[in-house]
Specification:
The protein is of the alpha/beta class. The chain has 16 helices and 13 strands. It has 2 domains: 174 residues, 3-Layer(aba) Sandwich (Rossmann fold), CATH 3.40.50.2000; 176 residues, Rossmann fold. α8 runs parallel beside α10, α8 packs across α14 and α12 packs across α15.
Length: 374
């Protein structure tokens, strides 16, 4: 740089608030890295569970705040309220020190305090909704939001919010998922059949209990072609793998796969939960799925809506866990693997809904809210 040239202006600092699950943290990470590439200083506010995703946070400033769910009786709500106050004060002081100019909230109850802190400083608030229905945290923060970014064309729970301030950007995904994009694997009467079974960051014990006996019920002509990757955290992993191999099925049974992008790229079919980040990964890579929403918990309704939305779009099947029996699953898999068109057509439907440029679109929206050139 010539001596008489002024140094480049520092771009505004952008903050992110995300709950402690991968479904909240991974999209925040993807957007943070995109804005960091564009020259913005960034900081992520999360809680102790989110901080455990060390690979996702590598190279990104992050602050661990106290957090507590608002669910429970009066005593629990009072304790949660005091935790939010403490976390908001801590976040506010940190934002002032960093000169934060805008906050993007990705949901989860730990995002509540940073959002309130940002608004108290006069910073714009952008909420990002990963699912097909507004999450509880985002519903409660909606009154404070300046804009809402969505992952689906239609999102329930936005009643009363100005539609002009809603932008469909898609759900940002990790770099490893973007790298996995490509053509659907060769699919014919003699090709190997790659089946990926994963239950999300919390795994899903039911898959280890139902999927193996379902696979054993398949015709031998299908079993001998199967290449199964099964995520299972129980004590019976070695026993499950041995049983499948004894029936002619190549199988890897592990508690965790650290090469998820590559396995998703190779998969002809995925059996998984209905989380929003899972949906974004499937659509970005373009893979069909059997979606089994969690049967209970705070995100049950969101997962069920996500799964039904994708099934209605032709991406795969929504199977409530109560209906996930070995016989039912075996019949579904036999039909899917026997048809020359069913899975390839579902893969095309998935790819058509994918938003591989979601991080860039969301970053453009952030910069437009700051009136900064994209």
């Amino acid at each position: 740089m010539p001596a008489n040239m002024p140094p480049p202006a520092t771009l505004p600092t952008i903050a992110f608030a995300a709950g402690g699950t991968g479904g909240h943290l991974f999209p925040a990470e993807a957007l943070a890295r995109e804005l960091q590439r564009r020259g913005h200083p960034v900081v992520i506010y999360t809680e102790r569970r989110g901080a455990a995703y060390t690979a996702a946070l590598a190279g990104l400033d992050h602050v661990v705040l106290p957090a507590r769910s608002l669910e429970g009786g009066l005593a629990g709500k009072l304790a949660a309220g005091w935790t939010i106050v403490r976390a908001a004060r801590q976040a506010r002081a940190d934002m002032r020190r960093r000169g934060v100019r805008l906050l993007v909230g990705f949901g989860g109850y730990p995002s509540f305090a940073p959002a309130l802190a940002a608004k108290s400083l006069g910073c714009p608030l952008l909420l990002h909704e990963q699912g097909a229905r507004l999450s509880m945290a985002n519903r409660r923060l909606l009154r404070f939001a300046d804009r809402v970014a969505t992952s689906f064309p239609e999102v329930a729970g936005l009643d009363g919010f100005d539609p002009a301030r809603v932008v469909e950007t898609g759900n940002p995904v990790r770099g490893a998922i973007l790298d996995a994009r490509g053509s659907y694997p060769a699919f014919g009467p003699d090709t190997p059949l790659h089946l990926l079974v994963v239950g999300g960051s919390q795994s899903a014990r039911v898959f280890g209990e139902v999927v193996p006996p379902a696979l054993l019920q398949l015709p031998e002509s299908i079993r001998r072609r199967l290449r199964v990757s099964l995520q299972y955290k129980g004590d019976a992993a070695a026993e499950i793998a041995a049983s499948l191999r004894a029936h002619g099925i190549e199988a890897e049974v592990r508690p965790f796969f650290d090469d998820m992008g590559a396995r998703l790229r190779d998969a002809h079919l995925v059996i998984t939960r209905g989380g929003a980040t899972t949906a974004a990964d499937l659509l970005t890579v373009g893979r069909p799925a059997v979606l089994v929403p969690i049967p209970q918990g705070g995100s049950r309704e969101e997962q069920l809506r996500n799964a039904r939305t994708l099934a209605a779009a032709g991406v795969g099947w929504c199977v409530p866990e109560a209906e996930l029996t070995p016989a039912h699953l075996a019949a579904l898999l036999a039909d899917a693997f026997a048809s020359p068109t069913l899975l390839p057509d579902a893969a095309r439907a998935a790819a058509a809904l994918g938003r591989p440029q979601a991080a860039a679109a969301l970053a453009d929206l952030v910069q437009s809210m700051l009136r900064t050139p994209a």
